[in-house]
Design brief:
FAD/NAD(P)-binding domain; about 375 residues; alpha/beta; 2 domains; D-Amino Acid Oxidase, Chain A, domain 2; 18 strands
C-alpha cells in the first residue's frame, strides 16, 4: 500500500523530494506563499553528490545552455593576484559534473516535473496530532490532512518546526553580511570567466562563477559585520572590499542584494517518529563550502530512500545519518570561512604556500572534498 506524505515548503529540498516520490508514493506539497518565485536569477553550485540524485529525475536532460560546468576553482589574494587553482573536475563523470546554474532554473525544472495540483499554496500549519501511526495536520484555514509522514522543508526561518515541537527555534547570526549581484563577462576582466574565482581578504571574501553558457556571472561576497543590521551597501563596500582593492569597483555597478548571514543551532530530531526536517529546516550551513543546495537535495533523497524501503526505524535512522553528515560539512564550512579571512600577513603567507601544495595533492583532495562530493 502506498504511503501518503505531506511536504511543507516548495523550495529545492521540498520539490526534490516530491519529484523522487512521484512514482512511488502519494504526496502533496503545501506552501505558505502565493506561488513559486521563478524570478530569482542568482546562482547556486551543485557538486556531484547532488547532481547524481537530480539525474534520477531527468536533470541531465536540462537544456545545456541553462547550466555550466566549471572545471577549476581559482584562488586569489585580495589584490586580485592569483595564488593557485584547484581542479574540481576530479570528481566528475560523464553525466555527473560539478554544475552551476540559476536557482530559478532548478526550481522551474523541479516544478515542471510535477502535476499542477501537486502544490497547494497559502497553507500554514496550526498544529499536528499523532494517532494510529498517522499524522493529522490542522491548517490555519480550517482544513486538515491525514498522512503517514510529514516532511518539513520550509527553510531556516521555519515557523512550522516551532509549531510542531512547541518550542521557539531561532537561527544564529554569524557576524557577516552577504552581498549578491549578477555580472556580465566583460565586467570581470581581472578573472577567468570559465572558472570559479575565490578572492580572499581579511574582512571579506568574494566568489564569482558563470551560471550558464551565456557566461552570466554570479557574484556573492561574505563581509564581516558585527552588527546584525547591515550598513548601507556602498559604505560596506568602501570599508571592506574596495578599501583593499579599488580595481574591484567594476564588480559592484549593478543591482546588489544584501542580507545578514545566519546559521542553525544544533539539529533537531522531531518528537514525532514520522516527522522529518530536511534542507535548511534541518540545518543551514555557512555558504563557504557551497553545499546549501546540495545538502537540501541529499537530505530529500535520504528521506525518500527510507520511505521507499519501508525502514522500520526511519526517524532515528535518518537523524543519525544526517547529523553525522551535517557535522562534517559544518566543520569544513567554518574552517573555510576562517581560512578565507585570515588577516595576519605571516599567516596569509603560510596559508597561500600550503594551498599551492594541497591543491596538487590528490590524496588530500580526495580526503577533504571527496567525503563531501561523493
Amino acid at each position: 500500500m502506498k504511503k501518503k506524505i505531506a511536504i511543507i515548503g516548495s523550495g529545492i529540498a521540498g520539490l526534490t523530494l516530491a519529484n523522487l516520490l512521484k512514482n512511488h508514493s502519494d504526496f502533496i506539497v503545501y506552501d505558505k506563499g502565493d506561488g513559486l518565485n521563478l524570478d530569482e536569477g542568482f546562482g547556486i553550485q551543485l557538486s556531484t553528490n547532488s547532481v547524481s540524485i537530480l539525474n534520477k529525475i531527468g536533470f541531465k536532460q536540462l537544456n545545456k545552455t541553462e547550466k555550466y560546468h566549471p572545471d577549476k576553482l581559482d584562488f586569489y589574494s585580495t589584490n586580485s593576484k592569483k595564488i593557485c587553482n584547484l581542479d574540481i573536475s576530479f570528481f566528475n563523470s560523464e553525466y555527473e559534473k560539478y554544475t552551476t546554474l540559476k536557482r530559478s532554473i532548478l526550481v522551474k525544472f523541479l516544478k515542471e516535473n510535477l502535476l499542477s495540483n501537486s502544490i497547494i499554496f497559502r497553507k500554514k500549519i496550526k498544529n499536528i496530532k499523532q494517532s494510529n501511526e498517522k499524522v493529522n495536520i490542522n491548517f490555519i484555514d480550517g482544513t486538515n490532512d491525514i498522512v503517514d509522514y510529514l516532511v518539513v522543508a520550509d527553510g531556516i526561518f521555519s515557523k512550522t518546526k516551532s509549531v510542531i515541537e512547541n518550542k521557539v527555534f531561532q537561527p544564529i547570526y554569524y557576524g557577516a553580511t552577504a552581498l549578491r549581484t549578477l555580472l556580465k563577462t566583460q565586467d570581470i576582466f581581472n578573472f577567468n570567466s570559465n572558472n570559479i574565482s575565490l578572492v580572499m581578504g581579511s574582512d571579506a571574501h568574494l566568489v564569482l562563477y558563470p551560471i550558464n553558457e551565456q557566461k552570466e556571472i554570479n557574484l556573492v561576497s561574505l563581509v564581516k559585520n558585527k552588527n546584525q543590521k547591515s550598513e548601507d551597501i556602498t559604505t560596506t563596500l568602501e570599508n571592506t572590499i574596495l578599501k583593499n582593492n579599488k580595481n574591484l569597483t567594476n564588480l559592484f555597478k549593478g543591482d546588489i542584494k544584501s542580507w545578514p548571514v545566519y546559521i542553525s543551532g544544533k539539529p533537531v530530531q522531531s518528537t514525532y517518529q514520522n516527522v522529518f526536517y530536511i534542507g535548511d529546516a534541518f540545518f543551514t550551513f555557512l555558504p563557504s563550502m557551497a553545499q546549501g543546495a546540495s545538502q537540501a537535495i541529499e537530505s530529500a533523497n535520504e528521506v525518500f530512500n527510507l520511505i521507499k524501503d519501508n525502514n522500520i526505524d526511519i526517524g532515528n535512522t535518518y537523524f543519525t545519518k544526517r547529523v553525522k553528515r551535517t557535522n562534517l560539512i559544518n566543520r569544513r564550512s567554518k574552517f573555510n570561512y576562517f581560512s578565507f579571512h585570515i588577516s595576519n600577513p605571516i599567516l596569509k603567507y603560510f596559508r597561500n604556500t600550503i594551498l599551492k601544495v594541497l591543491v596538487k595533492n590528490r590524496k588530500f583532495i580526495n580526503l577533504y572534498l571527496g567525503k563531501v562530493y561523493k
